[in-house]
Amino acid sequence: MNPQELLKLLTLEQLDDGRFEGQNQDIGAASVFGGQVVGQALAAAEATVESRPAHSLHSYFLRPGNKTIPIIYDVERVRDGGSFSTRRVVAEQQGEVIFILSASFQKAEQGFDHQTDMPDVPAPEDLPDESEIRLAMATSLEPERQAFFTSERPVEMRPLYPDDLWNKTTRPAQQGFWLRVNTEIPDSPKLHRTLLAYASDFYLMGTALRPHGERFSSAGMLAASLDHAMWFHRDFRINEWMLYTMDSPTASGGRGLNLGSFYKRDGTLVATCMQEGLMRMAL
Asked: Is 10:191 a contact under the CB 8 Å cutoff?
């Protein structure tokens, strides 16, 4: 899928008031890519709010999505207050709920302002393309596992640590990528937010595997996103290079917690995300 097809994927068909339909993208996984569902659900919620940008979302993955069936998104207008609006989105396939999302929107206002500094890292132009590393690594996998690693992806990514991206040795619980959607994108902050929500699901959960010498490509690895939360701090354009840093503060009980931060190239922190994922080896 190329970047223009991604824009189409995140453009939903409105069926009636508060009800939308989204199509699916096949990235070679057994089920629908979680970032797609987060992005589409946010797009559905955004479509019901005027003049208030989304500042946070919290979501849960309940069932794997079927790639062959469109997803229906029902938006509940929970509240429209003086400063904030709240929406709840339920994603369904064939009458079964597969995902739920709550999102909050706030009217623009001024207030206190501070942020953590962006780390000092190599420029994206000095790093290799993630897709080249992924394609080379896929040749060592059994055929039934290759599709996920060889599919064309619409987000261009440059890993900060390319030498150990797929190296199955113990590493610190940290990762980092420069990323962008390399195409012309309309000047719509809503669209840029939904695109970032989509992109935020790439690689994040794998951060918690690194201290244990495992990767998604490990034989017998069972991994699935359980929840996904995101906070939007400042404006950005996702067709310009952004730094995505990741770390995992803990893993326990068959689950790993992961934290991500997004910076513009000038060092501005624009968004934060967190995700807990199921991580277990098949018996």
From this structure: yes
20-63 tens-digit pLDDT: 999 999 887 889 999 999 999 999 999 999 999 999 999 999 99
Those residues with Cβ within 8 angstroms of residue 7's Cβ, 6 or more apart along the chain or in another chain: 183, 185, 191, 195
Residue 114 is assigned to a structural domain of this protein = no
Among residues 85, 104, 151, 275, the one annotated as catalytic is 275
What is the spatial distance between Cα 253 and Cα 279, in angstroms, rounded to a whole number? 9
Residue 118 is assigned to a structural domain of this protein: no
| Whole-Å CA distances, 265 to 3, 120, 242, 274 | 21, 11, 6, 21
Q: Is residue 113 part of a domain?
A: no
Q: Can you give the pTM of this predicted structure?
A: 0.94
Q: What is the mean pLDDT of the segment spanning 155-176?
A: 89
* Catalytic residue status for 275: yes
Catalytic residue, from 201, 217, 248, 261: name it. 201
Number of domains the chain contains? 1
Is 129 among the catalytic positions? no
Q: Which domain holds residue 154?
A: 3-108+127-281
201 an active-site residue?
Answer: yes
Q: CATH number for the domain including 21?
A: 2.40.160.210
Catalytic option among 200, 225, 248, 261: 225
Chain centre to alpha carbon of residue 218? 22
